[in-house]
C-alpha cells in the first residue's frame, strides 16, 4: 500500500502542481475485500501498462527508484492469493485495485503455490544440471537480493556484492564462473570494472554480463559489444536471464576443460 501511494505521489509531483490520492476499501459479492489507490495524475501510457509489473522497469529518473516496488508488491499479493489490476487513461490518472480473498479461497491459493513450485522445478531442469558459481554486483540492495533469489531458484550459487571494490578483493581468493554486474554505480562503473577484470583475470573477461537500462544509448551499446560480453537490458524476465546463463555455460565448460 505504501509503495502504491508513493508511486501515485511521484506521478502527481512530477507532472502538476497539486493533486489528490484516494484510498478506497470495500467488500464484493465474490467474497473478496477490495482496496484501491487512485490518483489524478497524468495516467499511464497504454504501451507501458503491460510492463509495470516487470522487475527493474521504472519511469522514474535515474536514482529515484529501482523498478522493484510494483514487482515486489505483486509477488506479495500473489502469495496471499490476492490480485492486482491497473486501470488508467492518459490524462485521467490511474487506479491500482487489489482484491483479497476472505474465505472459501484456500484451495485456489494452494493451487497457485503448486504451480509456482512446478515452474521452479522446470527452470532448474532447463539449467541442464550445471550449478554455476555466480557473483552478483549492484549498489542497490533490493536488486542484488532479488537476483540472488532468482539464481537460487535456478539451481545456482550466488555471491552478492554491493560495491566493485569488494568484488575485486574477493576475486583475489575466490573463483566464479561468471559475473552479473550493473553498469552505473557511484564508486566505479561496470565498464571500468570490466577493464580491471580484463587486466587481472583475462580468462574471466568474457564471462561478465552487464545489467543496464541504458542499452538503447548507442555509446553504451558500442562499448559493451566491443567488450565481447553479453548484456541484459532492464527490465528482464527470468527466462531472459536463463538464456544468457545457458550461453555463458558453454564458455564456462570450455574454461574448465582447458584447466
SSE layout and pairings?
Elements: H1 2-13, E1 21-28, E2 32-39, H2 46-49, H3 69-79, E3 83-88, E4 94-101, H4 106-126, E5 133-137, H5 141-153, E6 157-161, H6 164-170, E7 178-182, H7 190-200, E8 208-212, H8 218-227, E9 230-233, H9 238-258
Parallel strand pairs: 5-6, 5-7, 7-8, 8-9
Antiparallel strand pairs: 1-2, 2-4, 3-4
What labels describe this entry?
elongated, 259 residues, alpha/beta, four-stranded antiparallel β-sheet, 9 strands
Describe this structure as you would to a colleague.
The chain has helices at 2-13, 46-49, 69-79, 106-126, 141-153, 164-170, 190-200, 218-227, 238-258, and strands spanning 21-28, 32-39, 83-88, 94-101, 133-137, 157-161, 178-182, 208-212, 230-233. It has 259 residues and is an alpha/beta fold. The protein has a five-stranded parallel beta sheet, with helices on both faces. It is elongated.
In short, what is this structure?
The protein is of the alpha/beta class and 259 residues long. 42% of the residues lie in helices and 21% in strands.
Amino acid at each position: 500500500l505504501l509503495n502504491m501511494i508513493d508511486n501515485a505521489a511521484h506521478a502527481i509531483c512530477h507532472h502538476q502542481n497539486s493533486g489528490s490520492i484516494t484510498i478506497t476499501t470495500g467488500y464484493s459479492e465474490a467474497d473478496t475485500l477490495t482496496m484501491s489507490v487512485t490518483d489524478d495524475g497524468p495516467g499511464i501510457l497504454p504501451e507501458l501498462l503491460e510492463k509495470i509489473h516487470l522487475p527493474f522497469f521504472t519511469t522514474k529518473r535515474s536514482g529515484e527508484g529501482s523498478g522493484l516496488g510494483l514487482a515486489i508488491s505483486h509477488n506479495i499479493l500473489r502469495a496471499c492469493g490476492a490480485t492486482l489490476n491497473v486501470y488508467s487513461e492518459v490524462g485521467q490518472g490511474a487506479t491500482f485495485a487489489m482484491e483479497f480473498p476472505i474465505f472459501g479461497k484456500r484451495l485456489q491459493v494452494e493451487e497457485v503455490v503448486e504451480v509456482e513450485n512446478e515452474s521452479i522445478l522446470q527452470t532448474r531442469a532447463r539449467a541442464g544440471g550445471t550449478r554455476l558459481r555466480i557473483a552478483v554486483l549492484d549498489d542497490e540492495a533490493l536488486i542484488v537480493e532479488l537476483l540472488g533469489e532468482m539464481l537460487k531458484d535456478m539451481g545456482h550459487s550466488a555471491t552478492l556484492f554491493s560495491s566493485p571494490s569488494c568484488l575485486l578483493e574477493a576475486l583475489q581468493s575466490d573463483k566464479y564462473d561468471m559475473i552479473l554486474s550493473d553498469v552505473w554505480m557511484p564508486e566505479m562503473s561496470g565498464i571500468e570494472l570490466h577493464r580491471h577484470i580484463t587486466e587481472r583475470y583475462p580468462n574471466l573477461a568474457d564471462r561478465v554480463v552487464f545489467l543496464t537500462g541504458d542499452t538503447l544509448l548507442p555509446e553504451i551499446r558500442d562499448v559493451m559489444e566491443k567488450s565481447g560480453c553479453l548484456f541484459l537490458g532492464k527490465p528482464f524476465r527470468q527466462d531472459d536471464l536463463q538464456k544468457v546463463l545457458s550461453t555463458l555455460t558453454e564458455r564456462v565448460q570450455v574454461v574448465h576443460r582447458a584447466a
